[in-house]
Write a structure and sequence with these properties.
By secondary structure, the protein is α+β, with helices and mostly antiparallel strands. It has 4 helices and 10 strands, in the order αββαββββαββββα. The strands form 3 sheets. The chain has a 4-stranded mixed β-sheet with strand order 2-1-4-3, with no helix packed on it. It has a 4-stranded mixed β-sheet with strand order 6-5-8-7, covered by helices on one side. The longest helix is centred in the N-terminal third of the chain and has 7 residues.
């Protein structure tokens, strides 16, 4: 028993940000992950690689990847990420938002498995209300949504062009 314990290698492993020191007989990192019941997926972050030989004082880092569903305006994608927060995910994907864009959930939210992230890119619009032109930023999809967002209530005799169901676009 003393020989068995004495022949174990001591390694430091960080699993999803939680560090622990482990004594092991594992020959490779894959064997160590198996001992620890850690299922390593091809999209997970692992350093060093799974076939690396385990030696004393080896430092190993593993971060589980999560699948995230992102809807940016009408474009939808599913992406694997090891980012911890929505803000880190946006940075990883090189998505830059301005102050008028709408993001759900908020940037500080923790990434979760099968999380849905919605982004509506704002665009600059000019509208006329009673002959007075105003310039605003909007993420509205339809004229009705835009009017509601602007707090404009229509009366029976008001005329709206384009129609309330018309889709708004930046160039439209």
């Amino acid at each position: 028993i003393l020989f068995s314990e004495g022949s174990k290698k001591t390694v430091t492993i960080t699993l999803n940000g939680h560090q622990k020191v482990v004594k092991t007989h594992a020959g490779t990192i894959q064997e160590l992950l198996d001992e620890l019941d850690v299922a390593n997926h091809s999209n997970d972050y692992l350093y060093p690689k799974v076939n690396t030989k385990v030696k004393d004082h080896l430092k190993i880092v593993w971060k589980q990847a999560n699948q995230v569903h992102i809807a940016k305006d009408n474009e939808k994608k599913t992406i694997w990420t090891t980012a911890r927060t929505v803000a880190e995910f946006l940075k990883e994907q090189k998505i830059i938002l301005n102050e008028h864009d709408h993001l759900s959930p908020r940037p500080q939210a923790a990434i979760k498995k099968n999380m849905n992230i919605g982004i509506k890119i704002a665009f600059h619009l000019t509208y006329a209300d009673g002959g007075k032109e105003q310039q605003v930023w909007s993420t509205s999809a339809t004229v009705a949504d835009f009017l509601r967002q602007q707090g404009i209530k229509l009366n029976e005799l008001d005329r709206v062009e384009p129609s309330l169901t018309e889709t708004i676009s930046e160039n439209g």
